[in-house]
C-alpha cells in the first residue's frame, strides 16, 4: 500500500519499505546492456581484480534454484569467501552486488596473520557493514553514474537531486 491523501505514514508496512528501498523508479537508468558481472570491473580502478581475487568465489548469475536473498559467506577468512546473489533485474541488483561485495572484500582483505579470535570469531559485523554500505552508496555517486553507467548529466541530476 502506498500513501494516498488521508492515509497516515504509520499505515505503511515492511513490504512498502522493501519496495521503496529497492529504488524501482531508477530501473530505467540501469543499463541492461551491461551484464551485471561486468560492473565488477569498476574495482579495477582501485587495482582490485575481483573476478580473479584469491579466496573470493562469486556466484552472481541468475538461477531459478537460488533464493533471491543475496549474501556473503566467510567460510574461512580470508581464504574462502563466497558472494552469492540471484539477480532479479533492475537497479536493486547493482546496489545488492556492491553491498555484498563490501562484505566480501572486507573478509578477503583481512590479514591471515590475525589470531582466530580476531578474524574468525568477531562479535560485531560493524566493520563489514561499513564497507558494505560504503560500496552500496558509491552506486549513487555522480562520478560512478557518469563513468560506470554512462549516464548523462541530466539523468544523474534526476537520480541525485
From TrEMBL:
GO terms for molecular function: metal ion binding; metalloendopeptidase activity. Residues 55-116 form the Peptidase M3A/M3B catalytic domain. The keyword Zinc applies. Gene3D superfamilies: 1.10.1370.30. GO terms for biological process: proteolysis. Keywords: Hydrolase, Metal-binding, Metalloprotease, Protease, Zinc. SUPFAM superfamilies: Metalloproteases ('zincins'), catalytic domain. Its cofactor is Zn(2+). The keyword Hydrolase applies. This is Peptidase M3A/M3B catalytic domain-containing protein. It comes from marine sediment metagenome.
Amino acid at each position: 500500500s502506498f500513501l494516498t491523501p488521508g492515509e497516515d505514514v504509520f499505515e505503511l508496512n515492511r513490504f512498502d519499505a522493501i519496495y521503496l528501498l529497492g529504488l524501482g523508479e531508477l530501473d530505467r537508468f540501469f543499463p541492461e546492456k551491461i551484464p551485471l558481472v561486468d560492473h565488477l570491473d569498476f574495482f579495477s580502478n582501485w587495482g582490485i581484480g575481483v573476478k580473479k581475487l584469491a579466496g573470493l568465489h562469486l556466484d552472481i548469475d541468475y538461477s531459478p534454484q537460488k533464493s533471491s536473498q543475496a549474501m556473503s559467506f566467510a567460510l574461512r577468512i580470508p581464504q574462502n569467501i563466497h558472494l552469492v546473489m540471484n539477480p532479479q533485474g533492475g537497479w536493486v541488483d547493482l546496489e545488492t552486488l556492491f553491498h555484498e561485495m563490501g562484505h566480501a572484500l572486507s573478509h578477503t582483505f583481512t590479514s591471515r596473520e590475525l589470531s582466530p579470535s580476531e578474524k574468525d570469531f568477531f562479535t560485531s559485523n560493524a566493520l563489514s557493514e561499513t564497507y558494505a554500505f560504503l560500496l552500496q552508496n558509491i552506486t549513487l555517486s555522480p562520478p560512478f553514474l557518469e563513468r560506470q553507467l554512462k549516464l548523462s548529466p541530466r539523468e544523474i541530476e534526476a537520480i541525485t537531486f
